[in-house]
Amino acid sequence: METIVDEPQWLRTGSWIGCPLLGAALGWFLQSISGWVASLSWVPFKGPFQLVSDIPQPWGSVTGIAVGVVLGLLFAGVWAHERLIVKVTPLRITLTIKGRTRAYEAKLQAVFLDGKELVLLAADGRELAREKGDVDRQAVAKAFTEHGYPWHDEPPAVK
């Protein structure tokens, strides 16, 4: 039996839809105010705003929206790449983050969250893993305790 702790499906799907939509809205908005911003005397770096405002319509809006969608997709891709996925079985813990998967089969002294970092301590006190991620504290605690691992709600005291 394997337990997987990951972001909820609605959040993963929402990031791939919401980030490009938000990017499109932001791209359209920035393109639509670029002429006004370029006309302000106190604004530094007027050149990029003037360049954007000089693009003839409707191509200015289309370009702003397209650039926003692309940037939103890139942001969603980085978000997915940075996501920590924890798979727990009675014999193995597998951590996947940044395209890298590591499996741990050692006897553990403690498993805990130190802030947003998941920490695995070997029986001899060595730190096997410390991975930063936005995992649900209760879900990860349940996954480890159900499979017999020594879960700690707080980092254990250093001996």
How would you briefly describe this protein structure?
The chain has 159 residues and is of the alpha+beta class. The chain contains 4 helices and 8 strands.
- End-to-end separation: 34 Å
Query: What is the approximate shape?
Result: elongated
Number of E-type strands: 8
Please identify the structural class as seen in this structure.
Answer: alpha+beta
The residue fraction in helices comes out at: 40-55%
Taken as a percent bin, the fraction of beta residues is 15-25%
Polypeptide structure, described:
The chain is elongated, with a radius of gyration of 23 Å. Strands 1-2-3-4 form a 4-stranded antiparallel sheet, with helices on one face. The chain is of the alpha+beta class and 159 residues long. Helix 1 (9-39) runs antiparallel to helix 3. The model has no long low-confidence stretch (mean pLDDT 91). It is built from 4 helices and 8 strands.
